[in-house]
């Protein structure tokens, strides 16, 4: 290895997450046993238009947000660990592509087959999730209604057994004299 003995080892497991149209998060791991006091990230567009160098010391962070990226563009990043006696060799090159701003450009989204498919998959997942919730709510309501009907049947049965006299004069409610007559009759 051509690495200097005092230099820390290169970062490993460099990954890009939270990919959006104009930002992304890069994270990495540092092999155990070496004092790492910071990191340096080289970020460049694959077409060579833009290059950025991010350097941060006195931090134990193992992630960094890349901001102000161009949408729908290819980028390459490499991460270096900064030790007390120098910087590590650069990590493996990691390639990623920013997303297209589909909200802003709905007419052109058909050109990007992969991204629109991902979007459709996400929508589909959301829909199935919503359907599951709706079905669960409906089942819950069905159970509540069934329970209520059962309780209501029991109450109705009890009422019809105990108060047959009270339930009979339902057709005669229109005349106000009848209820007192009904009470007399029940004696």
UniProtKB/TrEMBL annotation:
Localization: Membrane; Secreted
Cellular component annotations (GO), alphabetically ordered: extracellular region; plasma membrane
Membrane topology per record: Single-pass membrane protein
Any GO BP: negative regulation of inflammatory response
InterPro entries named in the record: FN3_dom, FN3_sf, FNDC_type_III_4/5, Ig-like_fold
Classification via CDD domains: FN3 (cd00063)
Extent of Basic and acidic residues compositional bias: 158-176
Top-level lineage group: Eukaryota
Region of interest: Disordered: 158-187
Statement: the UniProt record of this protein carries the keyword rRNA-binding: no
UniProt KW keywords: Glycoprotein, Membrane, Secreted, Transmembrane, Transmembrane helix
Membrane-spanning ranges: 131-149
Main location: membrane
PANTHER family xref list: FIBRONECTIN TYPE III DOMAIN-CONTAINING PROTEIN (PTHR14470), FIBRONECTIN TYPE III DOMAIN-CONTAINING PROTEIN 4 (PTHR14470:SF2)
Name of the protein this chain belongs to: FNDC4 protein
């Amino acid at each position: 290895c051509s690495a200097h003995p005092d230099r820390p080892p290169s970062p490993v497991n460099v990954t890009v997450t939270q990919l959006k149209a104009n930002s992304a998060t890069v994270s990495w791991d540092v092999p155990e046993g070496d004092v790492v006091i910071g990191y340096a990230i080289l970020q460049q567009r694959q077409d060579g238009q833009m290059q950025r160098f991010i350097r941060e010391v006195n931090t134990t962070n193992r992630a960094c947000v890349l901001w102000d990226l161009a949408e729908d563009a290819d980028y390459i990043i490499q991460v270096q660990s900064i030790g007390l006696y120098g910087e590590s060799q650069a990590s493996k090159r990691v390639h990623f592509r920013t997303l297209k701003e589909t909200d802003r450009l709905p007419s052109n989204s058909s050109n990007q087959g992969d991204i629109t498919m991902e979007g459709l998959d996400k929508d589909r997942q959301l829909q199935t999730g919503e359907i599951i919730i709706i079905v669960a709510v409906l089942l819950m309501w069905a159970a509540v209604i069934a329970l209520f009907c059962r309780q209501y049947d029991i109450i109705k049965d009890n009422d019809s057994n105990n108060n047959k006299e009270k339930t009979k004069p339902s057709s005669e409610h229109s005349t106000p004299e009848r209820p007192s007559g009904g009470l007399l009759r029940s004696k």
